[in-house]
Amino acid sequence: MAQIRLQGEEAALEDPTLVEGFPGIGLVGKIATDHLIEQFEMDYYASVHCDGLPRVGVYRKGDSTIRPPVRIYVDEDRELLALQSDAPIAAPAVGNVAKCLTSWLVDTDVTPIFLSGFPAEKDGVPNLYGIATGDGAELLETYDIDSPSEDGVVSGPTGALINRSAQLDRDSIGLVVESSPQFPDPEAARVLIQKGIAPVTDLEVDVTDLVDRAEEIREQREKLAERMQQLGEEESTQAQPLRMYQ
């Protein structure tokens, strides 16, 4: 049965924001979300059991506890939720997962921030732009986040979540950053946090560790990045020019 199962008491949240971190191009969303969870020492809040998610158990170095591959973490003081995923989502399950998660977001009145990479040969600091559903565009204008410079489409789990939000006319924003199409990209994840997530959530986030440990992070995420390259666009979250999708 599809459900989001709380791991303890329900958090006292008034106007929460959720940062989504499904793996995709450059693993930018995952790296950024993992960093927030670690930086703020967020608490494991809920396990995600949507139909179609991989039936695997995840464990960590130095910790024998098994957890599901998709989880939600919380920081009550910061009104912040974060979705962490350690496995790609198979194409046939993308729609079910988006419907399941969006139902929970609606029920808990959470505003989501969706994250995606845009494959590009970068020259200097990666460019960031924003997309939105509902009244989310007002947030992008408030924080001077640029609109896209060309037509495009977001695919994979993130694209399905955005599509579902638009269908229900729910407020959401998407942050798209130029990123490496081949390798984990901590620099692009840093831009996501500094120029997108931090201002929108009104949080101060130290990203020094992302810069200093860039090579280590790349090595740790290399296997997952290779796996994402082997999958089709429905499994891998990414933004791309519309002309390439048609």
UniProtKB/TrEMBL annotation:
InterPro entries: Proteasome_assmbl_chaperone_2, PSMG2_sf. Residues 224-246 are annotated as: Disordered. It comes from the Archaea. Coiled coil: none annotated. SUPFAM superfamilies: Cgl1923-like (SSF159659). Gene3D superfamilies: PAC-like subunit. This is PAC2 family protein. The lineage of its organism: Archaea, Methanobacteriati, Methanobacteriota, Stenosarchaea group, Halobacteria.
